[in-house]
Amino acid sequence: MQENQISPSEWEIMRVVWTNHPISSREINDILKEKKEWKLTTTKTLIGRLVKKGMLSTEKQGRKFEYSPLVTEKESIDESIDDLLDQMCNTKVGRSIETILEKRTLSKTELEQLSELIKKKKETAPNKIYCTCTPGQCGCVV
């Protein structure tokens, strides 16, 4: 499980920083002001939490601070996905992936890449996935 899980509001900040670093708190706030009605103090509080969690670095530039990511967007997404998968029964993972594919629009290129990955994974896939949950945590019959 990720030690420093980030909240949905912190994700909003990180997405701006990943795209626009180095960036000041005011610039972050300006970018998010149409989506979020945060005061600058709210943005600064969230940035402070992200710095404390080791997600952002701080560098003083004159009278202001600028922030840069210490982790990549891909690393953060991968860790969040791993955390989610670690919380569910192994037998439910395939259905969860189906749900993602049903609910999100993907390009033909992305679908082709997924198709190739599935083809590769099939070569070494087991015939059956077994439940490894603690008894009473899921409805699988062991």
UniProtKB/TrEMBL annotation:
Query: What Gene Ontology molecular function terms does this protein carry?
Result: DNA binding
Could you name the domain of life of the organism this protein comes from?
Answer: Bacteria
Q: Does the keyword Lipid metabolism apply?
A: no
Q: Which UniProt keywords apply?
A: DNA-binding, Transcription, Transcription regulation
InterPro entries, per this entry?
A: BlaI_family (IPR005650), Cu_transp_CopY/TcrY (IPR014071), WH-like_DNA-bd_sf (IPR036388), WH_DNA-bd_sf (IPR036390)
Known Pfam families for this protein? Penicillinase_R (PF03965)
UniProt GO BP: negative regulation of DNA-templated transcription
The UniProt similarity line reads: Belongs to the BlaI transcriptional regulatory family.
Question: What name is this protein filed under?
Answer: Copper transport repressor, CopY/TcrY family
Q: Which organism is it from?
A: Alkalibacterium gilvum
